[in-house]
Design a protein that fits this description.
The complex is a heterodimer of chains A (about 375) and B (about 575). Chain A is of the alpha+beta class and about 375 residues long. In chain A, about 20% of the residues lie in helices and about 35% in strands. Chain A has 2 domains: about 20-250, P-loop containing nucleotide triphosphate hydrolases (Rossmann fold, 3-Layer(aba) Sandwich), CATH 3.40.50.300; about 265-375, Nucleic acid-binding proteins (OB fold (Dihydrolipoamide Acetyltransferase, E2P), Beta Barrel), CATH 2.40.50.140. Chain A has 8 helices and 21 strands. Chain A has a 6-stranded mixed sheet, sandwiched between helices. Chain A starts with about 20 loop residues before the first strand and ends with a strand. Chain B is an all-alpha fold and about 575 residues long. Chain B folds into 2 domains: about 1-50 and about 365-575, Orthogonal Bundle (MetI-like fold); about 75-335, MetI-like fold (Orthogonal Bundle), CATH 1.10.3720.10. In chain B, helix 6 (about 160-185) crosses helix 8 (about 205-230), helix 18 crosses helix 20 (about 490-515) and helix 19 runs antiparallel to helix 20. The chains are: A alpha+beta (about 375), B mainly alpha (about 575). The interface of A and B includes residues 95, 103, 130 and 169 of A.
């Protein structure tokens, strides 16, 4: 089962543990295409049945990581285990080819074979595994029914809508009962409405089948909505790996705060600290804010305030502002505010009363525990 | 699953280091055998003082072979080649661009006829075209001249002249310019032109400031390729120029081999010079065009804007018709006339419809002429073998270059594309020197030497066509078969090839047809027992047996048109 790899022996990096309950494990995976490292000593564990989202801007290495797990890229170093089986290890020169890893992959383009029918597309993984005919038919029909595709079995794959193609791709990936399912921006080619519906469907089916999944996307809304855990990637490394709630409410770095969700990011300097309170001054202004938590190691830091955490009225951390622009968005109003002697801030107000006119003065405040201090990495 | 999949274990391509290198090495060895070794032998023959024939000594290094190239008849041949190349290219471009623009961008009537007219001359080989035009416009007795005299015209046509050569070369190379330019024209996003209109430009300003600059890279590409093809063309100058005393470089190379005493080393040196010149030309073009291929940036097909021609529609239509008549219909008519004629000449215009003057005897004579029927059988064999084996190699190389990361794939690409700069006569000469001396494998004197030489000569065409086809296939279609559990071979068999079938079939057909036309390589490689149709046709022409020339031309052209007709739904042309 193992092919020898064309790599020189090298010192063993972070080792794979093959722990119980871990379905996918990466240790020290590194890959470059002749330039800087696309994936840089990536280590990661995905639990059995978990849906992990790799989130990041294009070129952050998320797709390369995923393709390495599928066996479509050969990493330069590191090791990968799927379902308790070592599928890649640069040190021990193991490289199980893609077709024998039994990992499902839904491509961004769906890669539905246009010369085959829906049935034949879905049956392909079973055919190449030489399943008995009757059994193959039974399983394909089962899966087609699960994905609401039974009516389309004999339709040529070139005559499908985007949503149908997406489902065929998914059905084809799970029919072989893969040890893991990888999804490469599977919703990015669909229009917004369809995307919302399929997102829910996808999550339902994933939970129903209990299939360990890695989902790659650059869309933070999708990541937060679908994930059990989110791994935010940048420059081939994972910057933060946490639950969606934690990533959103406690971003570790300025990059994460900026990439996940909307935020006011302001450079600041620590001017004082008590036990669980830090006082910072926004750079270039006289504005001082209290933040909950421990003092960061450096004096200069970044402050992240989510637009929905600014509230009108007096309170702790008061800011005097003037309305620059107000946009009525239906379920909320988005403001752009000019703080006195300071920066421009964005604020979102949930109620749908009429927006304030430009030029109106507005006093806002933000609770100290909502003032997030993030490092600039 | 793991037990059943062991049987599918791919041992190649993904395999360990040794297998990867072995596989690459095998392809590179094949290319070395097909292309590098013969050209190497040619270069060797150009710098020694004895021909590399069996029984000759190894010889001494010398530069003397290059000295006579720039004097006397050789120098004149160089001059002729330059003049004919430039003028012929200009004519071919003018015709090709006009056809491309009319069919792609105007409301000319019967645009399909324009497309057909631009393609069909490719099936009538330039060789046959030249022979037919020698019947049509030979001085005094040419059929057109008979008509002109009948009408009392004070002048006559003479195709055996510099002008005649340029005319026929331009006529039969216009399709290449057409293919280049028309694909560029249909790839331009019409919104780019509409934006010009919206910003206040007139139709003419849009054409001059937007459309033309966008197709300029394609135009330059077409010009270079046409120039290369015209300069390396052997059959047309051989047929028309020899009679008229207008020799070109490829003809001169052939003469140096044919005359008594022959001068193989000088011929080889001339071949090397021609090869270097064409390489330089293509290199300059590649440098000029680097990163400027904007016409194909989008790669999508668009429904292009159409210019309303108004009353000029019929002028445009007449132009298309004129081209079809000049390149296809008149030549076929001339060949038919000569093939049916008892005596082979026509006194006046009435004698063309004098049925008493006609006979089928020429057909029955030639069709029972065993040299021809043997050659036809040989040609079919060679053309099929070239399409199958050559095509398989071209496909394999395109696949390795575009779909794998095997070592040496850049070198493969360069070597495969090299023959675009190698004139047919140079390949022929190289193959002659490469295999005439070796007792084993006994290629010389077998039909397989043609298969190898044609596969080498057509490699750039096959490789480019296959690359374009493979490029249209999203790599994820193949990768998804891999993650679904299919091995490399299974993936190619059940996904890649079925999806590429139209492209592959089209390429096989074109390889078959081009092999059928091949003369400039074959003329060096045939033996009395291994003749191909073009060689028999050539001999009939040099023997002055015009009836046989006409019949062979008609029969082979008819055969190929039939093949094209049957395979037309697969035939896809692109600039190659």
């Amino acid at each position: 089962m193992r092919n020898r790899l064309r790599l020189p022996r090298q010192p063993a990096p972070a080792a794979i543990v093959l722990a119980a309950g871990v379905a996918i494990e990466l240790a020290g995976v590194t890959k470059s295409f002749g330039g800087p490292r696309a994936v840089d000593e990536l280590s990661l564990q995905v639990a059995e049945g978990e849906l992990l989202v790799l989130l990041g801007p294009s070129g952050c290495g998320k797709t390369t990581s995923m393709r390495s797990i599928a066996g479509l890229e050969t990493p330069d170093a590191g090791s990968i285990a799927v379902g308790g089986r070592m599928v890649f290890d640069a040190y021990r020169r193991i490289d199980v080819p893609a077709n024998r890893r039994n990992v499902g992959l839904v491509f961004q383009s769906y890669a539905i074979w246009p010369h085959l029918t829906v049935f034949d597309n879905v049956a392909f993984p079973l055919r190449v595994r030489h399943l008995p005919r009757a059994e193959m038919k039974r399983r394909v029909h089962e899966i087609l029914a699960l994905f609401d595709l039974d009516g389309l079995a004999d339709r040529g794959a070139s005559r499908l809508s985007g949503g149908q193609m997406q489902r065929v791709a998914l059905a084809r990936s799970v029919v072989m009962e893969p040890r893991a399912l990888l999804l490469d921006e599977p919703l990015s080619n669909l229009d917004a409405k369809l995307r919302d519906r399929l997102r829910i469907e996808l999550r339902l089916i994933q939970q129903q089948l209990g299939i360990t999944s890695i989902y790659v996307t650059h869309d933070q809304t999708e990541a937060l909505a679908l994930a059990d855990r989110v791994a935010v990637m940048r420059g081939g490394k994972i910057v933060q790996l946490d639950t969606p709630v934690a990533v959103y409410s406690r971003p570790r770095t300025r990059f994460v705060a900026d990439f996940v969700g909307d935020s006011n990011l302001l450079a600041a300097t620590v001017v004082g600290a008590e036990r669980d309170r830090v006082r910072v001054r926004l750079n270039g202004t006289q504005i001082e804010l209290d933040a909950a938590g421990k003092a960061p190691p450096q004096e200069s830091t970044w402050v992240c305030i989510r637009p929905e955490h600014l509230e009108a009225g007096e309170g702790a951390n008061v800011l005097r502002t003037t309305v620059k622009v107000a946009l009525f968005m239906g379920d909320h109003v988005a403001y752009e505010l000019a703080a006195e002697g300071g920066p421009t801030l964005r604020m979102v107000v949930g109620q749908t009363y009429a927006p304030l006119a430009p030029g109106s003065p507005l006093t806002v405040h933000v609770a100290p525990e909502r003032v997030l201090l993030v490092v600039d990495e | 699953m793991s037990t059943s999949s062991v049987a599918l274990r791919p041992f190649w391509l993904t395999g360990p280091r040794v297998q990867r290198y072995l596989f690459s090495g095998a392809i590179l060895a094949a290319l070395g055998y097909l292309i590098v070794y013969p050209i190497g032998m040619l270069v060797y023959a150009s710098v020694v003082d004895v021909p590399p024939r069996p029984g000759e000594p190894i010889g001494h290094l010398t530069g003397h072979n290059f000295a006579p190239l720039f004097a006397g008849g050789n120098l004149q041949a160089i001059g002729n080649s330059v003049v004919i190349g430039v003028a012929g290219t200009a004519l071919a471009l003018a015709i090709g661009c006009a056809l491309a623009w009319l069919t792609a961008r105007t409301d000319m009537p019967a645009r399909w006829l324009g497309q057909v007219s631009a393609i069909v001359p490719l099936f009538l080989s330039p060789f046959v075209g030249a022979l037919a035009w020698s019947f049509l416009a030979g001085p005094r007795v040419g059929y057109l001249n008979v008509f002109l005299q009948g009408m009392g015209a004070p002048f006559g046509l003479n195709v055996f002249s510099l002008g005649g050569l340029v005319f026929v070369l331009g006529l039969y190379h216009a399709p290449y310019a057409y293919l280049f330019v028309s694909s560029a024209l249909t790839l331009i996003n019409p919104e780019l032109e509409e934006a010009g209109k919206a910003h206040g430009a007139t139709g003419w300003q849009v054409a001059r400031r937007i459309t033309f600059p966008l197709v300029r890279p394609a135009l330059l590409g077409a010009a270079t390729l046409t120039l290369v093809l015209i300069i390396e063309n052997f059959p047309i100058p051989e047929v028309l120029g020899t009679t008229g005393g207008v020799l070109t470089v490829p003809v001169q190379i052939f003469r140096l081999m044919e005359m008594y005493p022959s001068n193989p080393n000088e011929a080889s040196a001339f071949g090397v010079v021609l090869l270097l010149f064409l390489s330089l030309l293509l290199f300059a073009q590649a440098r000029l065009l680097r990163g400027r291929d904007f016409a194909t940036v989008t790669g999508k097909g668009f429904r292009p804007r159409q210019l309303k021609l108004g009353k000029w529609r019929w002028v445009a239509f007449a132009f298309v018709l004129l081209y079809l008549v000049g390149a296809v219909l008149l030549p076929l008519w001339a060949l038919a006339m000569r093939a049916l004629s008892k005596f082979g000449y026509f006194l006046n215009s009435r004698s063309f419809v004098d049925f008493g003057n006609m006979t089928f005897k020429n057909f029955s004579d030639t069709l029972s002429y065993s040299t021809f029927t043997d050659a036809l059988r040989n040609t079919v064999f060679v053309a099929v073998a070239t399409a199958v084996f050559g095509g398989a190699l071209h496909y394999l190389i395109a696949h390795v270059v575009h779909r794998t990361r095997l070592p040496g794939r850049r070198v493969m690409e360069y070597v495969t594309m090299a023959p675009i700069a190698i004139p047919g006569v140079v390949i022929g000469l190289g193959y002659l020197w490469a295999w005439i001396r070796l007792p084993w494998p006994p290629l010389f004197g077998s039909l397989w030497i043609f298969v190898l030489a044609y596969s080498a000569r057509l490699a750039p065409f096959g490789f480019r066509t296959m690359s374009a086809t493979i490029g249209q296939l999203h790599h994820e279609l193949e990768e998804s078969a891999r993650v679904c559990g299919a091995g490399r071979v299974r993936t190619v068999r059940s996904i890649t090839l079925p999806l590429l079938r139209p492209g592959v079939v089209s390429m096989l057909l074109l390889l078959f047809i081009m092999s059928f036309h091949e003369l400039s390589v074959s003329i060096f490689l045939y033996t009395p027992n291994t003749q191909v149709v073009t060689v028999v046709l050539y001999q009939a022409w040099s023997d002055g047996n015009t009836a046989r020339v006409a019949v062979i031309s008609l029969v082979t052209s008819g055969l190929l048109l039939l093949v094209a007709l049957v395979g037309r739904r697969w035939l896809k042309f692109r600039e190659a």
